Structures are given as C-alpha cells and as structure tokens.
C-alpha cells in the first residue's frame, strides 16, 4: 500500500509517501521541517516535493493519513483541510491518526507515555504501562495538569520512556525515566499507523482536548456595541 502522510499538528510540517507492506515501511519521498507557523503556505509544496522525490504522481497513492491531534488548533485545521481536499480530488480514503499514538509508535513501541506540552500548566498525554508495542493504553488521550500527569508517571516502571515535547517538563522529577522530546511523530510511524487504520473507525476528525485559547467574538461584524448600563 502506498500511503501519503501529512502532519501539521505539532512542531513539524511533514508530508511523506511510503510503501507499507505488513511491518515493512519503505520511504519513497519526504519533506519534513520544524515549523511553528506557516504550514498553510508550505504544506502543498512539501507534498508535491515528496511525490516528486518518490517519482510518483498523486494518482499512485492508495491512502492518505493525517494527524488529528491533540495539537495546535491552526495546524490541525491546515493538515485536515489539505488531506480531505486531496482525498476528495483523488477519490482516496483519508484516515485520522492520533498525535499521541504516533509519538508512542515513533520509539519502536517502547514508549510508556506520550506527552505534549499544552502550555498553561498542562500536557496532553496518553499512557501505556506495558509499553506501546503490544501493550494496551490505560485510557484515552487527556489534557492533564502537570501535577496530575506526574502522579500517573510515578506509577510507570523504572526505565520507561516519555516521548514528546512535554517529556522535558518531568526530567527533574523522574531522573530514572528515559526522555525522547520529539517535536513531532516520526513519518515512518505515521505511515505504519495510517496503513493499519480502519477508515470506518478512524475518520479525519480533529481531536480537541480543551477549548481554544482565543475567545470568540461577542458581536458580529458591523453589529453595534451593546449600550452600557
């Protein structure tokens, strides 16, 4: 299966095309760069470059995988809109991939916790007490305070791996744990999860774990301000 993966949810802008056969993932073309903003201007070019590097046209793709969060509100919308538009144009299935699951899979399944720095004293997190490789997560993705996350991390076995941008937040408190502070998931992990996903249960729908930081407008454009009492 040829899979095009798109990731704009965290600190990277990634577009890559891979050949996936069982557990074997072969990279055909890839563009991935650290990026905090500007994904909308760069993503289409990245996808074009990845396909050119693979020597393929977009019609050769069997499936598209896109990260659905948790992550940046703006970044998620960019990636989802691009993937869904391309999928509709090509008549190809588009599957959603959890950012946390993809991070955990980036460490060859040994990670016991994927943690993303959500700012404001919180992390987005998911835990696999027995490791993500063959293990079972002990719950869904959550937005946790640093204190609540520390309590969960304290129950992990010594030597467990914390992966993701939030890992460094716990370095001092848990020196026995291994840290892998990735800015985003490995493209190969995204490809593996995208190929394995069931399109009927993995829709390209954003996963928001908390409300956006920006407050909605209190009045419509052109509407008069309310009179003060």
What would your notes on this structure say?
- The chain is an alpha/beta fold and about 230 residues long.
- It has two domains: about 1-100 and about 185-195, ATPase, nucleotide binding domain (Nucleotidyltransferase, domain 5, 2-Layer Sandwich); about 105-180, ATPase, nucleotide binding domain (Nucleotidyltransferase, domain 5, 2-Layer Sandwich), CATH 3.30.420.40.
- It is built from five helices and ten strands.
- It has helices at about 40-55, 75-90, 100-105, 145-155, 185-195; strands at about 1-5, 10-20, 25-35, 65-70, 95-100, 110-120, 120-125, 140-145, 160-165, 180.
- Strands 3-2-1-4-5 form a five-stranded mixed sheet, sandwiched between helices. It has a five-stranded mixed sheet with strand order 8-7-6-9-10, sandwiched between helices.
- A hairpin with a 4-residue loop joins β1 and β2.
- The longest helix has 18 residues, at about 75-90.
Q: Give the N-terminus to C-terminus distance in angstroms.
A: 65 Å
The CATH class designation of the largest domain is Alpha Beta
Count of DSSP-assigned helices: 5
Whole-angstrom Rg: 19 Å
Percent strand equals: 25-35%
Main sheet, how many strands, which sense, barrel?
5 strands, mixed
Structural class, by secondary structure, is alpha/beta
Strand order of the largest sheet: 3-2-1-4-5
DSSP strand count: 10
CATH T-level fold name of the largest domain = Nucleotidyltransferase, domain 5
The helix fraction, in percent, is 25-40%
Second rung of CATH, namely the architecture of the largest domain: 2-Layer Sandwich
CATH homologous group name of the largest domain: ATPase, nucleotide binding domain
Mean pLDDT: 91
In N-to-C order, the SSE pattern is EEEHEHEHEEEHEEH
Which residue ranges are poorly predicted, with pLDDT under 50 across at least 5 consecutive positions?
none
Shape: globular
Structural domain count: 2
């Amino acid at each position: 299966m040829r899979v095009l993966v798109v990731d704009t949810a965290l600190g990277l802008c990634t577009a890559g095309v891979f050949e996936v056969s069982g557990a074997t993932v072969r990279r055909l073309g890839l563009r991935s760069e650290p990026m905090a903003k500007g994904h909308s201007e760069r993503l289409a070019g990245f996808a074009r470059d990845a396909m050119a590097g693979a020597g393929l046209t977009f019609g050769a793709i069997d499936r598209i995988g896109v990260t659905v969060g948790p992550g940046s509100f703006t970044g998620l919308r960019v990636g989802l809109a691009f993937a869904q538009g391309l999928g509709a144009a090509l008549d190809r299935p588009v599957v959603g991939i959890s950012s946390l699951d993809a991070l955990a899979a980036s460490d060859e399944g040994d990670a016991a916790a994927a943690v993303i720095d959500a700012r404001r004293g919180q992390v987005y997190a998911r835990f696999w007490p027995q490791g993500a490789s063959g293990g079972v997560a002990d719950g869904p993705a959550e937005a946790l305070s640093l204190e609540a996350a520390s309590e969960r991390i304290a129950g992990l076995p010594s030597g467990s791996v914390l992966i993701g941008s939030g890992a460094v937040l716990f370095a001092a408190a848990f020196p026995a744990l291994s840290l892998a502070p990735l800015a985003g998931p490995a493209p190969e992990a995204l490809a593996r999860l995208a190929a394995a996903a069931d399109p009927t249960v993995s829709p390209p729908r954003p996963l928001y774990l908390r409300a956006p930081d920006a407050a909605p407008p209190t009045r419509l454009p052109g509407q008069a301000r309310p009179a003060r009492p």
